[in-house]
Amino acid sequence: MLRISLDRLIAIALLLPSLVAVGIFVYGFIGWTAYVSLSNWNTFVPDLSFAGLTNYLALMRSFRFQADLRNTLIFTFTFLAASLGIGLLLAVLLDQRVRGEAVFRNIFLFPMAISFIVTGVTWQWLLNPSTGVNLLFDQVGLGFLKSRWYTDPSIAIFSVVLAAVWQMSGFTMAMYLAGLRGVPDELLEAARVDGATEWQVYRYVILPLLHPVTLSAVIVLGHISLKIFDLVYAMTGSGPAFSTDVPGVFMFETTFRGNRFAEGAAISMIMLLLVAILIVPYLWYTMRTEAGP
User: Fold this and answer.
1) How far apart are CA 226 and CA 271, in angstroms?
2) How confident is the model at residue 193 (pLDDT cuts 50, 70, 90)?
3) For the chain, percent of residues with pLDDT exceeding 90
4) What's this model's pTM, rounded to 2 decimal places?
5) Contact assessment for residue 180 and residue 92, using Cβ atoms and an 8 Å cutoff
6) Half-sphere exposure of residue 16: CA atoms within 13 angstroms, side-chain side
7) Do the beta carbons of residue 163 and residue 79 sit within 8 Å?
8) At what angle do helices 156-181 and 211-226 cross, to 10 degrees?
9) CATH classification for the domain delimited by 63-259, as one of 3.40.120.10, 1.10.3720.10, 3.30.450.40, 1.20.120.530
10) Mean pLDDT throughout 168-172?
């Protein structure tokens, strides 16, 4: 009994510093941000008097914030669809045991080693209307493919999506490749013996088994897209007519350039809510699955 108590005390002592740090620097700061978002602190001088939902209502009426939410929705869906589709395609191709698989795998994963800031600066140059791919199109006689890219408000957000997909599709490729390698060969052989074509094997055997991988990838990529800041800020900023503006950029400029701390805190809390809407159901599903019936 004494031994068990001593082991428990040691475990608690080891975990306590981390628990205190998380409590203060994560949940404590979330609570402080929520408190500030309900205050009148919208000048350089602190004013923590209670303002209720005034800051949130002002954001809902803001044209810029409405554009931010629309851009976030477009970015999230196109980013997820493209990253999952390209990642799955690359994983299927690599799963054919092609020669030089390790080389291709490293090439596809390399963008993940680069920060979003570097990616943003690089793709800003690549998609510059005067240089990059437009210059290449001119030189190879494909001038009709030239575009204004991120300087065109109608397609600017898709230019950012292109850069994000380039960086993160290798991540989904790695996840799907691990899932494919985990599919039992016996199931595949049984399906082929029953007369299933390769397409039917993928459609009715492999893809259903990859559902957990897809769900995990959606959660990881989804929370990245909902709180994206560095890529957008480095590549386009808010873009022409706020065409690439997102809540992260709006929050940064509102808080640290406009000194509207309460309004910036409100934007942060809305971003947290959006991420929670995505993450909490996943955590609940995972806990139920692990607990079993």
Assistant:
1) 7
2) confident
3) 62
4) 0.89
5) yes
6) 6
7) no
8) 150
9) 1.10.3720.10
10) 94
